[in-house]
Amino acid sequence: MADSKKLVKEITSMDEDFAKWYTDVCLKAELIDYASVKGCMIIRPYGYAIWENIQHIMDGMFKETGHENVYMPLFIPESLLQKEKDHVEGFAPEVAWVTHGGDEKLEERLCVRPTSETLFCDHFKNIVHSWRDLPKLYNQWCSVVRWEKTTRPFLRSREFLWQEGHTLHATAEEARSETEQMLNVYARFAEEALAMPVVKGQKTEKERFAGAEATYTIEALMHDGKALQSGTSHYFGDGFSRAFGVQYTDKENKLVYPYQTSWGTTTRLIGAVIMTHGDDNGLVLPPAIAPVQAVIVPIASHKEGVLDKARELRDRLKAVCRIKLDEGEQSPGWKFAEYEMKGVPLRIELGPRDIENNQCVIARRVDGEKITVSLDSIETEIPKLLAEAHNVMYNRALERREKMTYTAKTLDELKEIAETKPGFIKAMWCGDRECEDRLKEVAGVTSRCIPFEQESISDTCVCCGKKADKMLYWGKAY
Amino acid sequence: MADSKKLVKEITSMDEDFAKWYTDVCLKAELIDYASVKGCMIIRPYGYAIWENIQHIMDGMFKETGHENVYMPLFIPESLLQKEKDHVEGFAPEVAWVTHGGDEKLEERLCVRPTSETLFCDHFKNIVHSWRDLPKLYNQWCSVVRWEKTTRPFLRSREFLWQEGHTLHATAEEARSETEQMLNVYARFAEEALAMPVVKGQKTEKERFAGAEATYTIEALMHDGKALQSGTSHYFGDGFSRAFGVQYTDKENKLVYPYQTSWGTTTRLIGAVIMTHGDDNGLVLPPAIAPVQAVIVPIASHKEGVLDKARELRDRLKAVCRIKLDEGEQSPGWKFAEYEMKGVPLRIELGPRDIENNQCVIARRVDGEKITVSLDSIETEIPKLLAEAHNVMYNRALERREKMTYTAKTLDELKEIAETKPGFIKAMWCGDRECEDRLKEVAGVTSRCIPFEQESISDTCVCCGKKADKMLYWGKAY
Question: Looking at this predicted complex, what is its ipTM?
């Protein structure tokens, strides 16, 4: 095998085996490689460039809403982790413990951060004294570790990259509105950057973050009908402040506890993109986060003038999009397949005949649609075509989600749908944890969220038949 | 204490106690806070914003030179760390070990990465097969852990943020030239972004990176006359490739080993900036990395029109610099001290009298120089003043370094300089490790580097008197 790049890239089809299709895409699109450490992954340049674009856009949205970035330590002393009872119960079973530094045994074990609420509280205690010190609107980009038993690239790995926002406020009202604001930021990001429609809502008590008073979520529906929790925002009340002794002097000179939030999204979003937009030819990337938005594939590039014209085109397009010209020796057909696999939104074909006619052919990755564009207007056309590609992707995903969203009024209906039709199930719930547990048991579904946009499907709980006024989204989930 | 922000910020003077001055600046300029984990630090928003600016500029330079970012796991299995003998000997004594995941003891201990050569090699082995797969030009932004005994903010902490470049090449020549190129990138960054002159050179064998064939360095001189290694670039030959079994098929269809480099800089650069430019009033930031490049302090802001005019000025200046308007209730004097502490390059004073005269007063942080500027030309003046501030800072640092660089021909001379004059000492060296050890023992100096720009100071080794043709920089170092 003299040239590993010449291998034809074949992947399992979605219908044959969705899970296999997913990992095939992760590997063949060169997003990841497996690492020597079980359950961890290597994010390769193409995958990392997607993450950089996600970071760049999201970080801008955080800064626009007044947040500042900080960096907290990687390690949490065991005694600090234990200060908030619910929190430690939720996380202790799945943390990695550092016990030795060099040859010496540590006096106290350190946990590799699974999330940093405890560290932020410890810091807030040092720096917040007066009402003038509030609010604190912080965010951190880092990696966290959770010792999961079963792992999958991007979706669930022992180490993953994320951002975690942590904010501190003078009033409960302000903290609640921050929690809501950041959920809206996530939803807007999902729609505008990932072309991914999401359902916004609140988690049930069972599904709440360890230590939170309320957890909000954006839920997306993947191609295979499974739900993916894509971002969460938590309201803590003053529980953590009390546990960690964070207090400040208010305007009336009284010592009081501030209110807290946290919110996070992870590299899981890359998994969401793969499973929302991908197809049997590989990845399909939303233009906003695509490392390469348009690729020029010269046709008959040995013919005089073709490469020169292609380079000229590339240089002109640099100002309007992330452009790449592939001058490689492989055939156009090989290149077509390669950039389809990598999900490049637009492919620009340019051959001697096109040059003669002062035009090029542009193929759209999402649906293969081809159009001929004059070279004179290419700088204005490409941004339009990228925006169109985004819209087609969003609408296609929304349409699929709507088609795969069902309504159940009775337990039998819900069971039948859960067994035969992958997707979301909308059904009423009385609010009892027992019904939630039972639906998991008998139908294999979990509550995804209590959506903000409520509909009245019936008056009774889909499970127990008692009076119910909450409509929930249920489903199988990643 | 109703308002913690109203405290006067006093710091120890440099001459009184340089070490105390340094930590005072770190804390009072709100760059860091100490964490519950011994030897780790919290990088606060102002400190992190400096790091973001460093990252942004440096990442651009890496991408311009063809490098791509990736992300490797945080953990290295013990067996993987042990594959390269010199490397593990260098790092094992100072790594943190993870022994448990949740309640279970791990089958194999994992080390929290102190550096990632081993992980990159393991990955290269998977993805490099043919000469067509080379070169690989990778970089990673992440945090690493080294279990240091004594720690200081930014300069030496158990966890720190850094970038580590790792590249793989077909020939030794190409790898050597990459090593050199990246050292030059670092030197250019130090000069252009940090206004910090550096000496470029090679490390002696004693000071080499564990497992490298050659280590290159940029060395800066701090205000107190101590040297600070500010960036290193390593040439590995094919040592790591052999140890990890990384091979590829060359153009002649032979299986051969590729050549490797790595290079890194860390948050230590922030420490370098503090100790190169800072003064008794606090931090002095080079404009390129300053989170706020110019701050508007309104004078008599309660008077009609002052705040309006100040806001108008801020809005105009947004396009040309990172501008801040401080509308806070504190006095102008308090604000002057605050932004001096924080090292903001330019302070713009605007009062009723200035407005009447259509002007403002601009004070330069580096030397306190004040000029009056017409409001009509402020957009063109500010960038010029920032560029000037940079030059003044660079020249001042260079001048100081030159004044603090001495020459020694004999051991007695060197000892006397080392005892009485803080700074660099240029002296000849025969190349023997014994002489290097002896100079450390009798004069407390280490070899900083064999500079690329050689001078002939004498023909004999400063230590043993034998023939010597290498001139070295020696000094006490952080």
Answer: 0.95
